Amino acid sequence: MNTEDFQFFIRVADLGSISKAAQDNNISVSVASQKLQRLEQNLQLRLFHRTTRKLTLTDEGRALLEHGRPWITNFVNLRETLIVKDHALSGTLRISTSATFGNQVLMPVIASFSHLHPGLKIYLDLNDQNIDLVQQGMDLAIRIGQLKSSSLIAKQLAPNPRVLCASPAYLQKHGHPKTLAELELHHCILPQLGDGLIDHWYLTNAAGDVEPIRVKGYFATNSGEGVRQAALAGLGISNHSMWHVVDDLATGKLVQILSDYPVATTAIYAVFPHRELIAPKVQRFLDYLVDYFQQRDQ
């Protein structure tokens, strides 16, 4: 059996479309159809019900997808592990992260890693919304904040301290909040993620306990950089990762507020699909990230 045909079958099943999978693999639809037909002929199974409008898995196709996905993933990773002992990294490493973190922090790390492994292609997906790694064919993602329980494996890379801040113009007009109760009376800039509006901030109260504070405002955005730009424009108080606004704080474009009630620290994670064997390209990049963040925090 051709393992590439099997991998393509999984991609078609994940995307629900032969044409989308063909585009994802940079091949024509006719070549894509031939790959599926060849796999079905080799297995003597029909894997998809095909109509002009819809593509659905057969019962056999669903069983093959469920039980065959971990097998083919482990097989390919094992093959790459054996090959890479004597050869440079190759193939494509597909990474997903937020646009802001990717541009400001991760891009220089990827660039230096790429110089060390010129035979490896890298695709970086910049998306402030958490995507489905399996469906989008990603090898790993860098995510910030509290992770929801899932089938993904997470590795913490570094703590992620956060800070509340606002522009001098906003504070001159509306004043500095001195307590958590006063914060609730101010305009706050609200992130809008895929699972809804984030209108609770977790701050450490006078007793040292983390307390959820309900905030409100008249501006929301699904972009981390959009939150920063709104804060710079004086639209309200914002809640940021320190790395995002450290330069703004240093130059006085933004001013930290409520320093006596620090924002609960989150973390930066690398997450990847659950696998018994991690592909060498992924493991090498993970090791590189760990070393980078350890050196940065020293």
CATH class of the largest domain: Alpha Beta
Order of helices and strands: HHHEEHEHEHEEEHHEEEEEHEHEEH
What kind of sheet is the major sheet?
5 strands, mixed
Derived from helix and strand composition plus strand pairing, the structural class reads alpha+beta
CATH architecture of the largest domain: 3-Layer(aba) Sandwich
Within the largest sheet, what's the order of strands? Answer: 4-3-5-15-6
Q: State the fourth-level CATH superfamily of the largest domain.
A: Periplasmic binding protein-like II
The name CATH uses for the topology of the largest domain is: D-Maltodextrin-Binding Protein, domain 2
Contiguous low-pLDDT stretches (5 residues minimum) are: none
Span between termini = 50 Å
Strand content: 15-25%
Approximate shape:
elongated
Feature tags:
alpha+beta; Arc Repressor Mutant, subunit A; D-Maltodextrin-Binding Protein, domain 2; 5-stranded mixed beta sheet; 15 strands; 44% helix
